[in-house]
Design a protein that fits this description.
222 residues
Length: 222
């Protein structure tokens, strides 16, 4: 029987920013993965945890890929993102999800966040105001990690946290689009790098503030 992507439970949909799956583009993406890739992984007896680790392997290659060419960095980032998408789907197909698997997935997602942004840091090497770029990227990483931590801590306290534009899936899509444009328009590389960094920093900072405010209101109301 052919394996197809099926919507996850409400809990999993919340964890993966399910709203993105309602879009037409997301439908094509998940349809491709569910129809062409997922059956191959299942047939090869690949486990979800192995796929999660494979996603980290591709993420580790992102900075090196960007060092050679933005397209390589984009390709490794895309493969890492696909692995991150598929591990949960594979777990549901095989029926072998576990608390450790969820923990591993979430932990390695944070490593991938760091490596993706580290790839863009490589693109700033040798360019003007490199120290400023380093500081802004460090701030972007700071906001990114706190966005994820705020959500995890709120859920650990029995609350919820879905607010803000830049959750895990939107962040990955943003970085993919940013890398794609940098590779597509080499003549505009510097403006795209700085503009993309400024926008990413602003969006992640706004997401963090929104989450802190809303979580604070919920917890104070108890």
């Amino acid at each position: 029987m052919a394996l197809r992507w099926q919507p996850a439970s409400t809990e999993n949909l919340e964890r993966k920013e399910a709203g993105l799956r309602d879009s037409k583009i997301a439908g094509y993406y998940y349809g491709f993965l569910g129809g062409a890739v997922l059956p191959l992984l299942h047939k090869a007896a690949i486990t979800p945890n192995q796929l999660t680790i494979l996603g980290l392997f591709f993420a580790l290659l992102v900075p090196a890929g960007f060092f050679f060419h933005p397209w390589y960095g984009f390709a490794f980032m895309l493969l890492s993102g696909m692995a991150d998408t598929l591990d949960g789907q594979l777990s549901r197909v095989q029926g072998n999800g576990s608390a450790f698997g969820a923990f591993l997935d979430s932990t390695l997602d944070r490593a991938a966040d760091f490596l993706f942004l580290g790839g863009f840091w490589v693109l700033f090497w040798g360019g003007p105001r490199f120290l400023l770029a380093t500081g802004l990227l460090a701030a972007a990483m700071f906001f990114t990690f706190l966005i994820s931590y705020a959500k995890a801590r709120a859920e650990g306290l029995g609350s919820s946290c879905q607010e803000g534009l830049m959750g895990r899936a939107p962040r990955t899509i943003y970085l993919l689009l940013w890398a794609f444009l940098v590779g597509l328009l080499p003549a505009a590389r510097q403006p795209l790098l700085w503009g993309g960094l400024a926008l990413y920093g602003a969006l992640t900072a706004a997401t963090l503030v929104e989450r802190l405010v809303r979580i604070g209101r919920r917890l104070r109301g108890r």
